[in-house]
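Deliverable D2.4 — example input (structure tokens):
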């Protein structure tokens, strides 16, 4: 009963029937309470999104697998201290894990510790553990992703370079070659290997130290002999995944180990010997009743049915002698079945019948493949010679497959190098370099949803909203179910003032997942664009409720508070965002804007500089930092910052205008006039440009041109404050330097 329930729980998990798995596993643990069954129950709870249930059932457990699952449950519940205590010390935890129930490699433990330290503001320890994760497993992309987000990732050529290929090869090929070598040994020389299936079927109940039915059947860690048998049974005398040569191991699935191939090839075996062999097998099966039941659960009955059907189809073409042999086997089994009084024994005899039919199948295949040399197999020397040839063929095939695997590993590492380098550039806000790297990818990889979303984010950081819109539109076409970076896409549409498109996006993604924070950020941006700031704020706060560690939702809430001129709550939102992600430069920028409006220029400079250190390629941050320096009367530093902003983004008119103002302040009127003439061509409807040009002409005593530009500035309908300044300048054209001081 226990093995039956374990098997069905595992099947339910594989089929994503989570509720069924939870129900059956609760029955299992009630009937057979043990820590191993408790671990399986915790896995069911975690898969069913019940981390609190897993937490309570595993609390106080000491086995390594229990501690690992307990740590995962704690992380889901943000109980970082308890999660850390469960995982430490790492060496002891990983040393205890010798499992089939749940693999807990050292890399996974290191990664979880890195997450814990990241979320508890221990950045250096977090970086250390993420790097350890990559050194253990170079394919652990999530660890490299975390290092990139922390701004501490090494170049992708180092983390995914050629030096890491041997590590992956050792991890991948080491297990495979070990499995092949053990599976190809002489089964007749070791009785424990000959009965390996029975031994492994018992181990689940006898040892109960993490053995899992599913892993025993599918994972080569469960036992090399079992793995070889299962693979051969699936392919029916075909090769394993490393060979195309038939193995000398018979392809039957039973708790009783198959006899050597030589025994099946003897053509002179009599009916009496077959009957005695069948009776001996029946006796062995009855003596090991519980092992037989568990063994029957390890393997899909479909394999046995397909084997019988295949044997039946082949028997139509066999010789009369083979038919007689099959009939005698059937008669022997039928006679034995009549003498058995219990239903269970009848089932066991059916198993015996299946074993006999499988022997006959092996016999027929062997005759067909070795028909040319069957007469020479009576001698032990010939048999060993053939087996030696088979082993040599398998070895050469394994070497060929190993070369293919190495080539595949190299290609995988090359792909990760490209993806890693692009992602690292993007996290360091070197967006143009990131775009160049992503362009190197093949069309198969580029059109996967994740890549266009990163491209769209890169264009967003470059303030190229049109190209960002195009990239995100491609994401919606390729994978409309993908919500990653959709919060950024909604901000792109907000800046482009595309109200209808933003509404459509919000409607689409709310149908995909109404419980995703990206969904509510898009809804909030939609309300904000319609000037409904109260509803927008509620939407952003809903996103925070769904995921308190979603930094961008906190930042957008802060923006809404600033628009509503509630600076105190805006500061709280920005600070919360920085507590979640200290590299979220948008929050540093938001705090700087609040202090700039409050004319707290020293505080504003500090926060703008923090944002500038994180993203040194943002012309917007440079512009506001330069504006703050100008307010602090540090004109030379401000001018230098404006020039950097112009170099970064020559299309941004704000740094150019500010540079012209600074040049006027420094008395460089002609240089300022040149910049304003250029701006007039780019943005001809900005009244402030004409007003400043009028002030320059006034200082140069060109009053006609000054009056002309002041008039144009008034015609462009400036703000009320600017109108008053321009009218005052016109009235006092003959009074020098009045306008310059007011502008």
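Example output (designed residues):
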């Amino acid at each position: 009963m226990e093995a039956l329930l374990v098997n069905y729980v595992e099947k339910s998990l594989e089929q994503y029937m989570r509720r069924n798995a939870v129900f059956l596993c609760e029955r299992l643990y009630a009937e057979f309470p043990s820590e191993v069954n408790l671990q399986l129950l915790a896995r069911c709870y975690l898969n069913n999104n019940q981390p609190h249930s897993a937490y309570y059932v595993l609390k106080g457990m000491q086995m390594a697998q229990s501690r690992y699952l307990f740590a995962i449950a704690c992380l889901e519940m943000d109980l970082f201290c308890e999660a850390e205590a469960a995982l430490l010390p790492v060496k002891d935890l990983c040393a205890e894990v010798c499992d089939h129930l749940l693999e807990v490699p050292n890399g996974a433990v290191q990664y979880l510790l890195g997450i814990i330290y990241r979320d508890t503001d221990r950045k250096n320890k977090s970086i250390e553990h993420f790097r350890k994760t990559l050194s253990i497993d170079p394919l652990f992309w999530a660890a490299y992703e975390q290092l990139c987000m922390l701004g501490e990732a090494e170049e992708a050529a180092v983390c995914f370079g050629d030096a890491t290929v041997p590590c992956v090869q050792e991890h991948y090929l080491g297990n495979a070659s070990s499995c092949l070598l053990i599976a190809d040994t002489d089964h007749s020389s070791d009785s424990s290997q000959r009965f390996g299936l029975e031994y492994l079927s018992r181990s689940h109940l006898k040892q109960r130290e993490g053995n899992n039915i599913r892993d025993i059947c599918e994972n080569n860690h469960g036992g090399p002999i079992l793995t070889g048998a299962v693979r051969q049974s699936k392919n029916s005398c075909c090769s394993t995944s490393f060979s195309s040569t038939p193995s000398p191991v018979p392809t039957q699935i039973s708790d009783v180990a198959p006899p050597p191939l030589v025994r099946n090839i003897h053509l002179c075996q009599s009916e009496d010997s077959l009957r005695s062999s069948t009776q001996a097998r029946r006796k062995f099966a009855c003596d090991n009743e519980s092992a037989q039941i568990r063994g029957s659960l390890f393997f899909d009955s479909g394999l046995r049915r397909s084997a019988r059907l295949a044997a039946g189809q082949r028997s139509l073409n066999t010789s009369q002698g083979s038919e007689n042999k099959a009939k005698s086997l059937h008669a022997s089994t039928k006679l034995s079945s009549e003498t058995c009084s219990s239903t269970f024994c009848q089932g066991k005899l059916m198993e015996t019948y299946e074993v006999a039919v499988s022997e006959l199948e092996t016999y027929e295949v062997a005759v067909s493949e070795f028909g040319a040399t069957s007469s020479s197999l009576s001698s032990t020397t010939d048999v060993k010679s053939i087996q030696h040839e088979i082993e040599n063929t398998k070895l050469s095939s394994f070497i060929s497959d190993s070369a293919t695997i190495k080539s595949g590993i190299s290609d995988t590492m090359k792909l990760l190098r490209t993806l890693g380098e692009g992602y690292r550039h993007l996290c360091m806000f070197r967006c143009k370099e990131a775009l160049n790297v992503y362009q190197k990818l093949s069309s198969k990889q580029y059109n996967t949803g994740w890549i266009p979303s990163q491209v769209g984010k890169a264009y967003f950081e470059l303030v190229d909203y049109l190209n960002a819109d195009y990239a995100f539109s491609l994401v919606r076409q390729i994978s409309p179910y993908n919500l990653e970076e959709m919060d950024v896409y909604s901000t792109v549409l907000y800046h482009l003032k595309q109200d209808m498109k933003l509404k459509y996006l919000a409607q689409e993604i709310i149908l995909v997942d109404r419980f995703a924070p990206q969904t509510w950020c898009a809804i909030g941006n939609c309300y904000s664009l319609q000037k409904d700031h109260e509803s927008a704020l509620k939407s952003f706060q809903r996103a925070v409720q769904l995921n308190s560690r979603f930094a961008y939702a906190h930042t957008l809430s802060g923006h809404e508070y600033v628009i509503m001129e509630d600076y105190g709550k805006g500061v709280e939102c920005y600070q919360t965002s920085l507590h979640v992600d200290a590299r979220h430069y948008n929050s540093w920028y938001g705090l700087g804007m609040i202090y700039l409006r409050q004319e707290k220029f020293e505080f504003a400079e500090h926060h703008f500089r923090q944002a500038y250190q994180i993203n040194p390629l943002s012309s917007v941050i440079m512009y506001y930092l330069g504006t703050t320096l100008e307010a602090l009367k540090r004109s030379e530093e401000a001018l230098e910052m404006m020039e950097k902003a112009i170099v970064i983004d020559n299309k941004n008119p704000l740094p150019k205008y500010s540079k012209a103002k600074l040049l006027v302040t420094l008395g460089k009127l002609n240089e300022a006039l040149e910049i304003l003439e250029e701006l007039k061509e780019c943005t001809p409807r900005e009244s402030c440009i004409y007003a400043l040009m009028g002030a320059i002409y006034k200082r140069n005593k060109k009053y006609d041109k000054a009056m002309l530009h002041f008039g144009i500035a008034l015609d462009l309908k400036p703000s009320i404050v600017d109108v008053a300044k321009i009218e005052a300048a016109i009235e006092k054209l003959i009074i020098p330097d009045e306008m310059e001081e007011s502008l």
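The CA atoms of residues 459 and 467 lie 6 Å apart.
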